[in-house]
Design goal:
- The complex is a heterodimer.
- By secondary structure, chain A is of the alpha+beta class.
- Chain A is built from 23 helices and 18 strands.
- Chain A folds into four domains: about 150 residues, no CATH class; about 290 residues, no CATH class; about 35 residues; about 70 residues, no CATH class.
- Chain A has a five-stranded antiparallel sheet with strand order 11-6-2-16-15. In chain A, strands 8-3-14-17-18 form a five-stranded antiparallel sheet.
- Chain B has a five-stranded antiparallel sheet with strand order 2-11-10-6-7. Chain B has a four-stranded antiparallel sheet with strand order 1-3-5-8, with no helix packed on it.
- Chain B is an alpha+beta fold.
- The radius of gyration of chain B is 29 Å and the shape is elongated.
- The chains are: A alpha+beta, B alpha+beta.
Chain lengths: ~650, ~300
């Protein structure tokens, strides 16, 4: 079993690392890895005969290697990429397991397991993964010890004990390095990122095509406000602005943007500043409260219609600071081109809506009155808010307003904007999120995919672009509360239960808060955070040198601590208690007879003393016999030694 | 003796696996910095700390070990001379995987339990007659993780003697009577027959029990108990013809045969070793053969 230990340890470590790559590496690679682990375990424990290492076997392994490398390349269409690299590592590690025989092979398997750990860390940095990574490192340390030393005296338990010690003692250094090791900015090389499914909002909207709106509980982003959080009903998170309508689908027109100059915006009221932490979407949209002032950072653009667009798709969790004004005004004017652009409509679509618009416009005096009248019409004509509106015909607006008379935010925003454009009022649909869930534990707002919303913006001369949310006319409650509260009936029972269960909500908030902290202070930790920390430590203008000094000082302290604590446990050698007790007995007996000669054995000595003191002869001879047995016999156990010491102490002469 | 191994005399360097581990750490660091990936960096730093702790633990495994005694035993050319090291561990943890090596010997791995001692027996191949000086013994360890090797050199005043191989078919010189009572091989006029034993180099063909050989029992030699034992003196000057090494080998063969028979014998080289018997005497004679002529084979 001792001989098998090395192979078993390496194989099990590889299996653990394999589990970490689940979800990143393709399933067939993981299956091959698992099979190789099983094979190695069977060989190591002697269940399967050890294959002979002939030339034929080597050719076979070589060709399997080639086939698998080609399979990986075909799966990913490249070998340069994190996912492809991980898959290749898994496959190569599996092959190494197949041919493993020596301790050196096992060491190589451990190395590939550590590479898999790196790949897993690059792919996933969530808080819940941290303990798994730590466990893997601990296991790797124990496996290294077991592979390096196969003596029965060195038990598996001892290997884990020394691994624990080494890993625990290295944690302070890891933290020190993490905080003070200068983070070089910039990429040395770029790997292709694997395709990530896009989530969240898209740049087009066809409310009529939705039979049923699927609401997802996934988090879209989190927001931490610098000051007070504005009221729920004011939390319009602006996303893609859609300004081209074909009667059924709203799209974001790509060409239109640069053609006309945006009218300058005059902010009203106090600014709201906050920090958004956006989950990856693989899209370029970034979200901010309506209306944002300026681009939060380099690489992010503020468009003419006040959306934030990143120059690269958001593939990892991203944080940014933004400042918004909840209420703004624009004196205009809207350029002719802009007005024409924002009022375009296909003439042959939605005829009934067109008739309705003409009808209402005829009764009203100004654009603003008209907008108010249409809003009133939405409120009073018996429209119903639902998440399951059913699909509609090509004339989506007519279907919503006159046939089904039901819909969700997208339907109403689309219909309202359509009615506005018919009457020549510039209008567009804005998509984004409304509201959010306050996390009292972490003190921040969670905005989920289920809070996705669409509303309308119209241009009013003298006011500028003005937000109108027709959903508020149909279902005013949606503004105050989330979808989960408004539409509880049409959602799965379990998610509603969990949403309403106070204890679960608390735990969920706690966990979300911990994750948020992890994201902010660990995952996002960078050179800027390092300088911030130095500033807080009292250095006014921190630079690289300061970091270096802090790092060096910590390193010296850590090394001193390690050296001291390891030295102490060496010097604390167990004193030979048996010998000490025996010497004490000899000292006691010096009063009786001549001291024990150097060449006098315990029995001879006892016999000589017994002759001088027949009264204690029996005790002394018994103690001498016990000493001889403890000293020269098989290893004495603790209780025997303690007993011997006590009896020597009690001996009276 | 005992000599404690102090930290000043311990050297430490990464093993091949240790260098590979360092390479792995470098790749991890590059990847972590390249992607500004905190998790990868954290893992890298943790493993780097682990490696430094491994270095300390490795050093500690050797430091404080005491060499209690070193004993040697000589042997014939072609065999292995032995060096027996007794190592002591007074710490409260076992010392695992201490590797001992003396020059060309195999590496011997010993483990010493806590507060105890252990012996390492090194077999040094002897290829040339004479004194083999052991300049140094290397004590090393890669415990616990195999990433580092700590080692120290012991420089004990040690030498192994390589005795000439007992080889040669010449007739031993005749015995001279001295009186005594040791069993000996048959000579003319000897009395009580005492038994048969296997033939060895150095025995005379005349002593072989040919009758037993004819019955297929192999080459056996008749031995007799003689009341008045004899002794021989082996003299290198009396051996003529062959070169020095062959003569020494012949002498060794005679000594071995005579010792096995329990005879009394003396040896005359440059100096004379008086007639005696027993293992101590045999070793003294063989040592003298090993060191003859400066102990250097031509």
């Amino acid at each position: 079993m001792i001989a098998a230990r090395s192979g078993i340890a390496a194989a099990l470590l590889f299996a653990a690392a394999l589990l970490l790559t689940l979800g990143h590496a393709p399933w067939w690679c993981v299956a091959i890895g698992g099979a190789a682990v099983a094979w190695r375990l069977a060989v190591a424990t002697g269940r399967v005969a050890r294959p002979r290492r002939g030339r034929g076997v080597r050719y076979l392994l070589g060709s399997i290697t080639a086939v698998l490398a080609i399979a990986v390349a075909m799966n990913f269409r490249t070998l340069n990429g994190l996912a492809a690299g991980t898959a290749l590592l898994v496959v190569m590690g599996a092959l190494k397991l197949l041919e493993s025989q020596t301790r050196r092979d096992d060491a190589i398997v451990i190395g590939s397991a550590l590479f898999l750990l790196l790949a897993a860390a690059l792919a996933g940095q969530s808080l819940w993964r941290m303990p798994l990574y730590l466990l893997t490192i601990w296991g790797a340390a124990a496996a290294m010890a077991l592979v390096a030393h196969g003596d029965p005296l060195f038990t598996t338990r001892a290997a884990f004990r020394i691994a624990t010690r080494a890993v625990v003692m290295s944690i302070p250094l890891a933290l020190l390095c993490f905080i003070f090791f200068p983070r070089v900015a910039g990429q040395f090389w770029a790997l292709q990122r694997g395709a990530v499914a896009t989530t969240g909002l898209s740049d087009e909207m066809s409310p009529g095509s939705f039979d049923k709106l699927v609401t997802e509980y996934d988090v879209a982003f989190r927001v931490r406000f610098t000051g007070e959080m504005p009221p729920q009903a004011a939390l319009y998170w602006r996303g893609p602005v859609l300004n081209s309508f074909d009667g059924f689908t709203w799209r974001r027109a790509r060409a239109g943007g640069g053609l006309y100059v945006a009218a300058p915006i005059i902010p009203l009221g106090e600014p709201v500043s906050y920090r958004v932490t956006l989950e990856p979407t693989n899209q370029n949209w970034m979200f901010a409260l309506d209306t944002v002032d300026a681009s939060p950072r380099r690489g992010v653009y503020l468009t003419h219609d006040r959306q934030l667009i990143a120059s690269n798709p958001i593939t990892s969790v991203t944080s940014y600071d933004a400042v918004s004004h909840l209420s703004t005004r624009s004196d205009g004017p809207l350029s002719t081109l802009g007005r024409r652009y924002e009022t375009r409509l296909p003439l042959d679509r939605n005829p009934r809506a067109r008739a309705l618009a003409f009808d209402i416009r005829a009764r009203t005096g100004s654009d603003e009155e008209y907008a108010r009248a249409v809003f009133e019409w939405f409120r009073t004509s018996g429209l119903e808010y639902t998440l399951e509106p059913g699909a509609t015909s090509v004339d989506a607006v007519d279907a919503t307003l006159f046939d089904t008379r039901r819909g969700f935010c997208g339907h109403f925003a689309s219909a309202y904007a359509n009615l506005m454009r018919v009457a020549g009022v510039p209008a567009r649909v804005v998509t984004g999120y409304l509201g959010g869930e306050w996390n009292p534990v972490g003190g921040y707002l969670i905005v989920r995919q289920s809070e996705a919303h669409a509303w309308t913006e119209i241009w009013l001369d003298g006011k500028g672009w003005t937000r109108v949310d027709p959903t508020a006319a149909v279902e005013p409650e949606r503004l105050q509360r989330g979808v989960f509260d408004v539409m509880a009936d049409s959602l799965p029972a379990t998610s509603v239960f969990l949403h309403n269960n106070a204890w679960f909500t608390y735990v969920a908030h706690l966990w979300d808060g911990a994750n948020q902290w992890w994201q902010d202070s660990v995952v996002e930790f960078n050179l800027r955070s390092q300088f911030d920390l130095l500033r807080r430590l009292g250095i006014e203008k921190p630079n690289w040198q300061h970091l270096g000094w802090a790092f060096a000082a910590g390193l010296v302290a850590w090394i001193a601590w390690v050296a001291l604590s390891l030295r102490r446990s060496l010097a604390r050698g167990k004193p030979d208690r048996i010998a000490k007790a025996w010497l004490r007995m000899a000292r006691k007996l010096e009063k009786v007879a001549a001291p024990r000669a150097a060449n006098e054995g315990p029995y001879d000595f006892a016999r000589r003393i017994s002759a001088a003191r027949p009264d204690v002869a029996a005790d002394i001879e018994a103690l001498a016999a016990r000493y001889a047995r403890l000293r020269f016999g098989p290893a004495a156990n603790e209780s025997e030694i303690v007993q011997f010491e006590r009896d020597v102490r009690r001996l009276a002469v | 003796m005992p000599v404690a191994i102090t930290t000043r005399r311990i050297y430490i360097l990464p093993t091949r696996g240790g260098y590979a581990f360092a390479g792995l750490l470098f790749v991890m660091l590059l990847a972590g910095l390249n992607y500004a990936n905190s998790m990868a960096l954290l893992i890298t730093f943790l493993l780097a700390g682990f490696a430094l702790i491994a270095m300390h633990l490795c050093h500690r495994n050797l430091a404080g070990t005491a060499v209690h005694s070193i004993a040697t035993s000589d042997a014939f050319v072609g065999e292995h001379g032995r060096i027996v090291l007794t190592l002591e561990n007074s710490a409260d943890t076992a010392r695992i995987g201490l590797e001992c090596q003396a020059q060309d010997s195999e590496r011997v791995i010993v483990n010493i339990p806590a507060d105890s001692s252990a012996r390492a027996e090194l077999a040094v191949p002897l290829v040339k007659r004479g004194r083999l000086t052991i300049d140094s013994i290397r004590l090393s360890t890669t415990f616990p993780f195999g990433l580092f090797r700590a080692w120290t050199w012991l420089h004990p005043p040690l030498g192994l003697l390589a005795w000439p191989v007992p080889r040669g078919k010449r007739e031993p010189p005749p015995e001279t009577a001295t009186g005594g009572n040791a069993p000996s091989v048959h000579r003319a006029g000897d009395e009580e027959w005492s038994g048969l034993r296997e033939f060895r180099d150095g025995d005379s063909p005349r002593q072989v029990a040919w009758a037993a050989y004819a019955r297929g029992r192999g080459l056996l030699v008749k031995t007799y108990q003689s009341p008045a034992a004899h002794h021989r003196t082996f003299d290198i000057a009396a051996l003529t013809g062959a070169d020095v090494e062959q003569r020494l080998e012949q002498l060794a063969a005679w000594i071995e045969a005579a010792h096995a028979r329990g005879e009394r014998y003396g040896l005359r080289l440059a100096q004379e070793i008086p007639v005696d018997s027993g293992n101590e005497h045999r070793v003294r004679c063989l040592d003298a053969l090993a060191l003859h002529g400066g102990g250097e084979a031509p």
